[in-house]
């Protein structure tokens, strides 16, 4: 769209709203749409967000947990590409950024496990 959002960016943003509202059914729905988008248009995970932020860091900013779709974004983007780029605004690596947002230990651990090179 005019802001540089892809369908994947839109659903990541909506998944953040679903998380905030604690609506399990909607969160599961968002998770299935993320998986569908990644299966049909895997390159969408490689498109940077409208302001130049990577899709992985945007997903973390939207508080997407590892098992709720972040794993798919990271793996589809390419682990090195997804996890080597610091957040544009705070300068933290993805696992540090996830920790600063109090994401689950599973998410933080997997981000670090998939890219232990610092």
Keywords, please?
118 residues; mainly alpha; 7 helices; globular
Short description:
The protein has 118 residues and is an all-alpha fold.
Into which percent range does the helicity of residues fall?
Answer: 55-70%
Mean pLDDT: 81
Order of helices and strands: HHHHHHH
Q: CA-to-CA gap between the ends? A: 35 Å
Determine Rg (CA atoms, Å): 13 Å
Shape: globular
Segments where pLDDT lies below 50 for 5+ residues? none
Fraction in beta strands: under 5%
Largest sheet: none
Helical run tally? 7
Based on secondary structure, the structural category is mainly alpha
- How many strands appear in the DSSP assignment? 0
Lay out the secondary structure.
Layout: H1 7-21, H2 24-40, H3 55-61, H4 70-77, H5 79-83, H6 94-100, H7 105-114
Q: What would you note in describing this structure?
A:
This protein has 118 residues and is an all-alpha fold. It has helices spanning 7-21, 24-40, 55-61, 70-77, 79-83, 94-100, 105-114. Helix 3 runs antiparallel to helix 4 (70-77). The mean pLDDT is 81.
